[in-house]
Amino acid sequence: MATRFGMAGGIPERRVRPIWDAVDSRQFKAALKLSAALLAKYPNSPYALALKALILERMGKPDEALSVCSNAMELLFSDNVVHIDDLTLSTLQIVFQRLDRLDLATSCYEHACAKFSNNLEIMMGLFNCYVREYSYVKQQQTAIKMYKMAGEERFLLWAVCSIQLQVLLSNGGEKLLSLAEALLKKHINSHSLHEPEALAIYISILEQQSKYEAALEVLSGNLGSLIGREEDKLRMQGRLLARACNYAAAAEIFQKVLESCPDDWDSFLNYLGCLLEDNTNCFKASTASHTSLPSSVDSQVPKETHLSEELFDSRLSSALSVVEKLQKDGHDDCVRGPYLATIEIERRRRLNGNADDGKFLEALLIYFQRFNHLSCFASDVEMFLQMLTQDEKSELREKFLNILEALPTTPIKRIGRS
Prior knowledge:
This is Phagocyte signaling-impaired protein. Belongs to the MDM20/NAA25 family. One of its GO terms (cellular component) is NatB complex. Pfam families: NatB_MDM20 (PF09797), TPR_16 (PF13432). It is a single chain. This protein is an all-alpha fold. The protein has 3 domains: 1-133, Tetratricopeptide repeat domain (Serine Threonine Protein Phosphatase 5, Tetratricopeptide repeat, Alpha Horseshoe), CATH 1.25.40.10; 134-228; 261-418, no CATH class. Helices cover 67% and strands 1% of the residues. It has a two-stranded antiparallel sheet with strand order 1-2. Helix 2 packs antiparallel against helix 3 (46-58), helix 3 runs antiparallel to helix 4 and helix 11 packs antiparallel against helix 12. The longest helix is centred in the C-terminal third of the chain and has 21 residues, at 309-329. The protein starts with 6 loop residues before the first strand and ends in a 13-residue tail after the last helix.
């Protein structure tokens, strides 16, 4: 419960605290009784009414709660009220949200902002209302007002993110993105940027406009120091270079990432995509972690490539050399990426119609020998197994069984093994 100078919604906190304690302990009848006593002393308090509405809603009386909220709104909208605080509004908003009447909560905040236009807390509450209603234009307008009022970086970023949401769901994206870029440039010139998230948003705005060279320049400048981990910076550089079709430079960048993070599966796929100059399935925004390994089957139809067969095979061989070096240099038995990468390389070779001379099955066997004790083994290789013929599956199954039979029967003291 937010308070200011010992007051809560214009009422001394000592009178309000017992009600909240009763609500928190789910003693709603006791809370309602205390609320009635509070209303008897403060009959014209919107906050006291909001508290009663909250209790009624928790007691499963939505109609009564809505009626009490309406009374509170009438008081808020009357000329007699000289003070409206965010605690009253947020309490009403909680009730309205549970009653599925977000529009009424927004109306309360809009009225409060019109009456107290310099109250930053209330404006933030209004912004949150627009977020819940997916009102991206109003989000942007409110965030800009807060930025002009407080000059804080976070409000500018809220405005820019609201613009990005508009671009995703409407036309006129080019003009909106130009506006977002101009806002950020102006802020950078006067205040610079102070958070890595701010830099990421700036880069994404440039990227959405296909200004890859400009984004790379920003990343290599002073602002690039905002990114704490060098690997994260390299990933961004690699993605931008690839989207600018500078595949050779991008492949070098992703190789550096793999040398420091050999289990980074996304970076390996990006590295391989750059070598083969095929970024169809790469460089997409992902919420998964960088180390997540494959969980779904890619298309098993060979993708057309403009590379000659000789060049295609040569680049796969280069990738295999890098992966084998990662395997050799690795000292952590739990790192699966380089061994799974070998399977992926042989899969690409097979999809392109090249004879693999049993190397695909061999890579699967090596992976089984090293990681069959892990619970994730099946999901790791599932997509690869679907490429095998029935005869190959039978052969592989038999070899798996032979490996298991040859395992020592004495327990091995090793993480992940029994």
